[in-house]
Amino acid sequence: MIATTILSRTGIIYCFLLLLLSSWNAAAQIVPLETFIEDMVSRHGFNKLELTQLFAKTKVYNSILKIMNRTTSGKGRPWYRYRSNFITDHRISEGTEFWRQHAAALSRAEATYGVPAEIIIAIIGVETIYGKNTGDLPVLDALTTIAFHYPRRAEFFRSELEEFLLLTREEKLNPRLPTGSYAGAMGLGQFMPSSFRKYAVDFDGDGKRDIWDNFTDAIGSVANYFHGYGWQTGQPVILATQVRPEAINSLLSAEFKPLFSLKQLKQQGLLFQDERLDNQLGMLIDLETELGTAYWVGFENFYVITRYNRSENYAMAVYQLAQEIANIYYAQSH
Fold first, then answer.
1. Where are the alpha helices (DSSP H) in 181-306?
2. Class for domain 232-306, per CATH?
3. Catalytically annotated residues
């Protein structure tokens, strides 16, 4: 009895220490705003008083923190439910109209960066319904809320906040004015600040990189993003396949990246008939349909789409929306 009590108390103390250590670790990830400001001053030459006054006017959004907690817990929707939100008649018809309205910019982007027009359109369609829903939250407030009030992602969002302040200085923008999503994603293509600085382009040559209101810049920027991540012009994205039942787990447990050739994957149990693609790198993709699990081979271009959003569902939605738009656009053009 005494031994049981001692063990029970020991367990309680151990659990308490674990919780305390977890709290310390979480708190350690939150850098004080004052430290962040000092860092921006010392590393990038910002004015301390101006930054202090700027952040004094920021608002912490509890609604953002609730969304962050919701999006980082639980399992994602099955593919067939996810698909129904994006592959719709409305989004397809709006996409074909978007193509007609911006055909010149899309054609030039495809020629410049090698990314098909329909992929560019589908990204903008999935992200913002072709610019109709780009987000109305102040980007500065959104990034500040997560960077200093959400330990789990604080480090990443501090980095994005740093990038945002740099881009507003470079682009001569008032940091209070740009708006975006709850996570600070901006414009028609929903670029995070780091992506903006690296991939946004002045595609119409007016001296500004405007991905909020300038469709030409947004189109060029999305194409440049895919080009920067290695889009392979004229190569496949994803194809349906079958796989030997005993090989499914081992093939799906591989790193989420096309590291093996189809010839090697076939040797491991992939049942893919086209030998012309044997030298292509690929990976097994499984998605839940209403009839059960279906399998595809995702190639390098599929992986590139996931660099926009690391989700098989997302990448497949972009690809299938692009295909639907292209089918109707070309049918109506002839």
1. 193-199, 215-228, 248-252, 262-268, 300-306
2. mainly alpha
3. 127
